[in-house]
């Protein structure tokens, strides 16, 4: 059984030489288009993580992911994911092949990709017919980022629609009461965002219907899903798609300037990180402007960006403006891109930590109602994580009528979390050293204490 898919890079600007190549990093690339083939793997904890299978990075934005055989049109957090077996790259033949399986269903398949010109052919190859337990369930999915297509349009055969801003697609009720999304539309040729050459993608199915679903109908982090079912009792080519992603001629990625959004203390080191896209060279000056009360931009400092090197897909350099200690409002400019304003101020860190305690930590807390003024962040969630029967009162041993039935979920000692906390405290110590040395020392002492405790636990386990 073979499911074949063809991905190609088409162009609205007559760029006939925008052919895909298999680069040294193990993915296919052309101007404005990257196709990743199982370069990343699903998060082991959450099955709906959008980070695996066949992925499309379209003009610098990862607009599609999870191109893989899935057992649901709109997979959710705890739905099954395949087991990764191996991945093989053949540069001579311009092919990448991944082997995957669903062991509980005795179901193994291969996803094979091959580039030719500006096309990428993808085949899902099965040595045996689809197991009976997966008939009507297994299909090939590709998920598209909703925010990249909000209020844009699509054609599916003769149907033309607008991508909804809010989830409101059709649903049906299955036996047992569960609601399941139904397709927004079905057909053989799908054109996403025909009006936008930066986001246009064309998918054609040669043998089976394409269906497009709104995954947000079942989960807030759902994406738009394009899917074809794998037919039962068949081998050979059972699904065949052609996917064409538009390419803007001469496109290059806009540089990214990383800096402290909290601001800088006058006496601390001040280094911004410049990130540029593949093929770009960091050879330009970066400029630091001070904004006056009248709104004028006064050049305070300039220097060439110091190249650092390449990490994964991008090139990096640094812009060191540590010598600037005059307090005020500043912006950084590089290659015509300006940052948002930030402060250089001796009091910049005095209250920065309070946002974490006042907002971030409470919002992350389950098992309790959390509100901020008129905003309700969430109710008392996960009340059945531990004991399912409780009087919802805190246990007090001094009271004879009090019951020891409190829920203690998420209060267990966790070595990974402790190491993460130690790292965060150590980083906070460095950031606070110039402005609040006493607090910085306390953070460092706590980090060292946690580190030593975890190392002592490790020694006791090994002994």
Strands of the largest sheet, in order across it?
A: 7-8-9-10-1-21-18-17-12-13
Largest β-sheet summary: 10 strands, mixed
Figure out the total of helices.
4
Report helical residue fraction. 10-25%
**Secondary structure category:** mainly beta
Radius of gyration: 27 Å
Under CATH, the topology of the largest domain is which?
A: Beta-galactosidase, Chain A, domain 5
Query: Quick one: overall form?
Result: globular
Strand % is: 35-45%
Describe this entry's structure for a reader.
It contains four helices and 32 strands. It is mainly β. It folds into three domains: about 1-245, Beta-galactosidase, Chain A, domain 5; about 255-345, Immunoglobulins (Immunoglobulin-like, Sandwich), CATH 2.60.40.10; about 355-460, no CATH class. The strands form six sheets. A ten-stranded mixed beta sheet has the order 7-8-9-10-1-21-18-17-12-13, with no helix packed on it. Strands 2-3-4-5-6-11-20-19-16 form a nine-stranded antiparallel beta sheet. It is globular, with a radius of gyration of 27 Å. The chain starts with a strand and ends with a helix.
């Amino acid at each position: 059984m073979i499911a074949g898919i063809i991905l190609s890079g088409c162009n609205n600007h007559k760029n006939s030489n925008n052919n895909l190549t298999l680069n040294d990093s193990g993915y296919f690339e052309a101007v404005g288009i990257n196709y990743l083939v199982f370069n990343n793997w699903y998060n082991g904890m959450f099955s709906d993580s959008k980070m695996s299978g066949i992925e499309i990075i379209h003009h610098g934005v990862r607009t599609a992911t999870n191109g893989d055989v899935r057992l649901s049109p709109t997979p959710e957090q705890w739905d099954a994911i395949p087991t990764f077996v191996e991945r093989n790259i053949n540069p001579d033949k311009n092919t990448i092949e991944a082997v995957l399986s669903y062991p509980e269903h005795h179901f193994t398949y291969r996803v094979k990709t091959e580039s030719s010109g500006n096309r990428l052919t993808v085949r899902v190859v099965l040595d045996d017919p689809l197991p009976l337990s997966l008939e009507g369930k297994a299909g090939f999915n590709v998920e598209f980022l909703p925010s990249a297509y909000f209020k844009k349009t699509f054609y599916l055969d003769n149907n033309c629609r607008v991508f909804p801003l809010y989830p409101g697609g059709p649903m049906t009720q299955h036996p047992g009461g569960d609601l399941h999304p139904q397709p927004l539309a079905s057909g053989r040729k799908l054109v996403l965002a025909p009006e936008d050459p930066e986001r246009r993608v064309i998918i054609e199915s040669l043998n089976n219907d394409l269906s497009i679903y709104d995954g947000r109908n079942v989960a807030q982090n759902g994406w738009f899903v394009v899917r074809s079912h794998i037919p039962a009792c068949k081998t050979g080519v059972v699904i065949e798609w052609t996917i064409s992603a538009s390419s803007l001629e001469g496109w290059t990625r806009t540089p990214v300037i990383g800096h402290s959004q909290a601001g800088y203390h006058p006496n601390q080191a001040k280094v911004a990180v410049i990130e540029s896209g593949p093929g770009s060279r960091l050879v330009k000056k970066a400029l630091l402007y001070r904004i006056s009360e009248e709104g004028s931009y006064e050049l305070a400092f300039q220097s060439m960006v110091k190249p650092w090197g390449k990490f994964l897909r991008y090139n990096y350099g640094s812009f060191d403006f540590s010598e600037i200690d005059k307090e005020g409002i500043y912006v950084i400019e590089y290659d015509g891109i300006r940052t948002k304003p930030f402060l250089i101020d001796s009091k910049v860190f005095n209250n920065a930590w309070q946002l974490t305690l006042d907002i971030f930590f409470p919002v992350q807390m389950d098992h309790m109602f959390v509100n901020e003024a008129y905003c309700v962040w969430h109710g008392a969630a996960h009340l059945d994580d531990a004991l399912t029967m409780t009087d919802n009162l805190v246990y007090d041993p001094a009271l004879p009528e009090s019951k020891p039935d409190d829920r203690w979920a998420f209060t267990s000692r966790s070595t990974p979390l402790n190491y993460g906390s130690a790292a965060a405290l150590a980083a906070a110590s460095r950031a606070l050293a110039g402005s609040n040395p006493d607090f910085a020392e306390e953070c460092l002492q706590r980090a060292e204490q946690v580190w030593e405790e975890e190392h002592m636990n490790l020694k006791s386990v090994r002994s």
